Amino acid sequence: MTSPATPRFSIFTPSHQPRFLDECLASLQAQTYSDWEWIVLLNIAMKEGVARCGGPLLV
């Protein structure tokens, strides 16, 4: 019998502070488990102060 495929993990990161994304990615890459995907949900504020949600960024 063959073993089942290893499950894949999805990590969702809502972000309104993009300056922290490099540090977050470095932390993910340092993990011992390598079968993951990282999805960043960008939340960029407009000048009027109303937040709009950008599309997901799949890394």
Automatic annotation (TrEMBL):
Gene3D superfamilies: Spore Coat Polysaccharide Biosynthesis Protein SpsA, Chain A. This is Uncharacterized protein. It comes from Streptomyces gibsoniae.
